[in-house]
Design a protein that fits this description.
- The protein is an alpha/beta fold.
- The chain contains ten helices and seven strands.
- The chain has a seven-stranded mixed beta sheet.
- β3 (65-75) and β4 (78-85) form a beta hairpin.
- α1 (25-34) packs parallel to α2 and α6 (140-149) packs across α7 (156-164).
- The chain is globular.
- 46% of the residues are buried.
- The structure holds adenosine monophosphate and manganese (II) ion (MN) (3 copies).
- One manganese (II) ion binds at residues 13, 15, 70, 254.
Length: 283
């Protein structure tokens, strides 16, 4: 059977215990293979510490693997995520940049816990730490899991809505990397920069255009058109934008763990046929 490249079951966005996922890199790669993923990327937040383990496991299973990362960026006061694909995880400038991005997380988490205590929830820092696999990378997700365990909320989505987003008691604004800087780290490490889950940013048309133009001018090359939180309308909208801005298209579940994510590994829409799949540009 002839297969069109765009139909490949590529899943190029996922998280392990090295950031805020619940599966270790090896378990995640095994699950991807079991789910029928044909090309897989690990893209932990601000961290490449899981790449070597994931790559070894993928090689043993014969699953084509792409080394990745998801860099936290602050763009005009908003948090935007930029995925880097096919990076050299040993690149020194990238590693130093990511270390700098990670460095504010612990102080931020302590401040989150202080504010949650004022809202009547004590001990959240220690509680969240129990869920952390990498002491360098404490995230809002770990707080959310702890608050669910304590019965404060029914699920992590409710925790975010009530406590962890802008305007809520446990939200602490944070300054992440600059957009152009994040793209430079990725491109400098031989990678391809991708704007992750554009449907999450709640940007108007003009702002989205501005973001994509700045991103492309900085050397960014792709847009995540298919991801678990995009419905059919968003897939169409971002497919159009990818074409309009001359960006390749990526596809990734943003899987964080069984039972917690919007979608299972690899179980997301196929890329619309008219797009240029980012995997045609991989080395
Ligand atoms: P942080 O990098 O510490 O700000 O945490 C960001 C992470 O929180 C994201 O990568 C998601 O895994 C998770 N997250 C953000 N918003 C939500 C939400 N509304 N519901 C569930 N998880 C969320
Ligand atoms: Mn996450
Ligand atoms: Mn993200
Ligand atoms: Mn992600």
């Amino acid at each position: 059977m002839i297969r069109v490249s765009g139909e490949l079951n590529a899943d190029l966005h996922s998280h392990s215990t090295v950031s805020d996922g619940t599966l270790a890199p090896t378990e995640l790669v095994r699950r991807a293979a079991q789910q029928g993923v044909e090309l897989f990327a690990l893209t932990d937040h601000d961290e490449v510490g899981g790449i070597a383990e994931a790559a070894r496991c993928a090689a043993a299973l014969g699953l084509p693997f792409v080394a990745g990362v998801e860099v936290s960026v602050t763009w005009h006061g908003r948090t935007v995520h930029v995925v880097g694909l096919d990076i050299d995880a040993e690149d020194q400038a990238l590693r130093a940049g990511l270390a700098q991005v990670r460095s504010g997380r612990t102080a931020r988490a302590r401040e989150m816990a202080r504010q949650l205590a004022l809202a009547g929830i004590d001990g959240a820092f220690e509680g969240a730490l129990k869920y952390v696999g990498n002491p360098d990378l404490i995230s809002r997700t770990h707080f959310a899991r702890h608050l669910v365990e304590r019965g404060v909320c029914a699920d992590t989505r409710e925790v975010f809505g009530r406590y962890l987003v802008e305007g809520k008691p446990g939200y602490v604004p944070h300054r992440w990397a600059e957009l152009a800087q994040a793209v430079r780290w990725i491109v400098g490490a031989g990678g391809i920069a991708v704007v992750a889950h554009p449907g999450r940013y709640k940007l108007g048309e003009a702002e989205l255009g501005q973001l994509l133009a700045e991103f492309r001018d900085a050397g960014g090359a792709a847009l995540e058109v298919v991801t678990s939180n995009h419905g059919a309308h968003e897939v169409r909208q971002f497919a159009d934008l990818a074409l309009q801005f001359g960006l390749a298209a990526s596809r990734g579940s943003d899987f964080h763990g069984p039972g917690e994510s919007h979608a299972e590994l690899g179980r997301i829409d196929v890329l619309p046929y008219r797009l240029d799949p980012v995997w045609d540009r991989l080395r």
